[in-house]
Amino acid sequence: MAELRQRYLDAVRELLRPHLHDQLSPSMLAGACVSVLPVDGAGISISQRPLRVPLGWSREAAAVAERTQTTLGEGPCLSAAADEAALVADAPVIAE
To answer: Which of 28, 40, 49, 54 could form a disulfide with 45 if both were Cys (CB 3.0 to 4.6 A apart)?
Structure first.
């Protein structure tokens, strides 16, 4: 776990390098997640039932998934928030 944490921090630092004066955006942090995890996309949101606010995503497909879940009020991200556990969702899971 410590190695994964370090890889993520290194990815975040790499994103900041060309923009040392800028702040990190949630989409940049989602992109760092994709660079260190075996996933195609990632999204970041804040949740406190019943409210969920998508903040950023690594690519357009993740944005569509985030908006769809928010519109429908259900989906893997909402399940993860309700269970207070990380969740990886592939295309079939997202399509359910």
So the answer is: 54
